[in-house]
Every structure is written in C-alpha cells, then in structure tokens.
Specification:
Layout (H helix, E strand, L loop, with lengths): L2 E4 L12 H13 L5 E5 L1 H9 L5 E5 L9 H17 L11 E4 L4 H13 L5 E4 L7 H5 L7 H5 L1 H14 L2 E4 L2 H9 L7 E3 L7 H5 L8 E6 L8 H14 L5 E4 L5 H10 L6 E5 L3 H9 L1 E6 L9 H6 L5 E4 L2 H6 L4 E4 L4 H13 L1 H15 L4 H19 L10
Helix pairs in contact: 1-17, 3-4, 4-7, 10-15
Length: 402
C-alpha cells in the first residue's frame, strides 16, 4: 500500500504542533517501515518533518511560502489554490490503488484529496475531521468557544462536511463524542474511528525523575482561546491566594502569548507563572516531571492529547467536565463544572494539600497514561482502515502516482 498524505497547511516549528499534525507525524513514523509514504504540502510541511526527524518519506512540495506576506488568511487561500492546482496534475497509476489521507478538514488539506477522490472513486480516501466549529449564535451569546475566527469558518466547514460524508471511505475523529455525531449524520460505525491520540512512551522513560519538583502545575498546549489559557491565569490567581508559593509552568506558544504576559503582569504573577515556550521531546518531559499536577482547562475541545503526556509521568489532572472529556479522560482527573474557576482552583489545591488523594489519583493517572502508547494506537488506526476497506471490497495493492 502506498500512502499519499495531504498536509498542506501545517504550522511549521517551533511555533506549535497541533493535535492533527502530531497524529500525522506519529502515524507516519510508524507506518513508513511497511508502506511507502508520499507527503504533499507547502514548505512548512517539510520543515515539520525535519524537526520531528521523520525519514524515508517522499516529499512533493506545493510551494506557497512566497505568499506569507499576505498574512494567515492570504497564505491559507494560496495554499488552497496551489494545492488544488497541483493535485490536478497528479496521475495515479491505472492498475494500482493507493491510499489517500487528508490531515484535516481545512481546505488546503481536504480539497486536493476530494479532487483525487472525485476523479478516481476507486481510490480509498481517509479524511481527518478533528473539531466541529460551533454555531455563530454561540459566539454572539458569549458562550465559551474556540474564538471568532474558527466560528466564522463554520459555513465553509459545513459545506465541506457534506461532501466528506458523501465521498470519504473512512473518517478519523478525535473522540467518541464526535464519532457519535458522525454516525448521527449517517455514517456507519465501521467508517468512523476515534483516534484520541497517543504518547511516545520511550521519551518519558528516558527522562529521570528530578530530585525536587519546581512547579505545582503544568499546562501543555497552544495559547488559544479554546484551550482556556486566559481562564487558567484567573484560576492560578486563586490558587496563589491560598498557596502563595505555588508555581505554574505554561508550555506552549500561540496567538494569546502577548495577552497572557500582560495578564500575568497585571495579576502580579510574574514570579508564580513561567512561560518556557514551545518544548518537545526530552525538554518538555523535564518540565513535566518537575511538576506535580497537569492542568487541562480547555473550554471548547474535542479532547486534547497533550495532557496524556503528563498522565504517563504520574501527574494527576484537573479539567473542566466537558462532554468530550468524559470518554477522552475518564480516569486520573478531577473535573470541575464547566466555567467554575473556583472549583477548578479548589481541585488543584485539593491535590496539592491532600497527600493520600494525590497518591491515589497519581497511580490512576499513570495507569491511564500507559494506555496511550503511540505504537499501539498507530497500529489500531491502520487496522481500522484496513478492516473498513476490506469490507468495501477495495484493494490495498502497492500503488504510486506520477
């Protein structure tokens, strides 16, 4: 089987690593030994692969970097147009059936894959769809969500969703809640797989435990409204009011970094909150292992696998009781009512002050984290795809494109 993967709107390192890009990286890392992989994308796609030390991939460059001066919106439009143009020039061998995978529902990823599928219905297409955009009414009413930009993307996403539901042979979603939504829209159970995500267990195992904990809590993720990072600083202010020496590490970067730094200053939390930037691999786990609790304050999300990296290290978690997290993180967490910052802060303090409760939840977290092994998860994804396509009678022969 030749895998043709479209990842044309990757955010290049070191600014961030989205959940969808992490899924792509870890699956390709484990699939390339058995299946040739061709990766289609702009210059940032190759930068990500080099940063993550992915080898054995054939890269097809859909050059769009020269349009970066147009800003994010302009680059997005250029990536979409160039991707669709270049996809039309790809001619798959008539006597072979490669596998097409699109990294996300964003148009630079999804439209080239849709173009191929419409032209060659016999080629199986696996489409990733990791987050539903909320209705505009939710944003206008002030309901917590992913922000105005992604909300405004909803009409485009709904247009694409209808086409994906019709043409995709397999759909990858984040968690069980979204899997059920897809089935409610008419998809069969075997045609939707909840990826959840994973952890490369070899990395945390290679990092020794520190002699002492520097941080009482750690956050890992993008500095984006849906991740609850503004709320986290408000929460930490309450924690510090009860425990003046409490320290928080916020690992990541994002659009809200400047605002968060200003909030930290206004709240007089400069000595209580650290921003170590975007970290990955060993450096990230050094900070995680130097912490006692992982905080996952997402206010709108389909899951979020970053917290699992801390569970593996035995850090119990605190999160809001979002519907998606009921199946995503059923163990190892204390959950606060949605939007209740006081209860969230109270749960953090409860873990920091109650040694018995901490030890119990830490053991539960470590056991839950061990279930997130990327070696196992990547194979499960591949097995689910294989089973689905066999059920459709579609071939998996070694195929290529010219």
């Amino acid at each position: 089987m030749d895998i043709h993967w479209v990842a044309n709107c990757v955010v290049p390192p070191p600014s961030s690593l989205s959940g969808g890009d992490r899924i792509m990286v870890e699956c390709i890392r484990r699939w390339t030994g058995r299946h040739p992989v061709t990766l289609y994308g702009w210059e940032g796609t190759r930068q990500l692969c080099e940063h993550q030390k992915l080898e054995g991939i054939h890269h097809v460059n859909w050059s769009a970097a020269r349009w970066q001066f147009l800003g994010k919106g302009g680059l997005f439009a250029a990536q979409t147009w160039i991707g669709c143009r270049e996809a039309r020039r790809v001619n798959f061998s008539k006597d072979r059936s490669p596998l097409i995978v699109s990294s996300s529902d964003f148009l630079p990823d999804s439209l080239p894959a849709l173009e191929w599928k419409r032209r060659r219905p016999d080629i199986p297409w696996v489409a990733a769809f990791y987050l539903f955009a909320p209705p505009l009414a939710d944003f206008m009413s002030g309901k917590p969500g992913p922000g105005g930009l992604f909300t405004m993307y909803r009409p485009v996403q709904q247009w694409y969703l209808r086409r994906m539901l019709k043409h995709a042979d397999m759909i990858l979603v984040t968690g069980e809640e979204d899997r059920e939504r897809m089935m409610a829209l008419g998809r069969s159970p075997d045609s939707v797989f909840a990826v959840r995500g994973g952890v490369d267990l070899t990395i945390p195992r290679s990092v020794p435990e520190p002699s002492e904990k520097r941080y009482d809590a750690v956050f890992i993720g993008r500095f984006h409204p849906q991740k609850g990072v503004r709320e986290l600083l408000e929460i930490w202010k309450r924690v510090v009011a009860e425990k003046p020496d409490a320290r928080l590490a916020m690992i990541g970067l994002g659009v809200l970094e400047g605002e968060l730094r200003e909030m930290r200053k206004q709240m007089r939390l400069e000595d209580r909150v650290d921003f170590p930037g975007f970290l990955d691999g060993v450096e990230k786990y050094r900070v995680i292992k130097a912490s006692r609790v992982v905080v996952h304050p997402a206010i709108y999300d389909s899951g979020g696998m970053a917290a699992a990296e801390a569970l593996v290290c035995g850090l119990p978690g605190v999160a809001f009781d979002l519907l998606s997290l009921k199946t995503y993180y059923p163990k190892g967490f204390l959950k606060a009512r949605e939007g209740d910052l006081g209860e969230f802060a109270g749960n953090i303090l409860r873990l920091l002050n109650d040694a018995d409760r901490y030890a119990s939840l830490s053991a539960e977290a470590r056991a839950a984290g061990a279930e997130w092994d990327w070696d196992v998860r990547a194979q499960q994804i591949l097995d689910a795809i294989s089973q689905r396509l066999r059920g459709l009678g579609m071939t998996w022969s070694q195929g290529g494109a010219s």
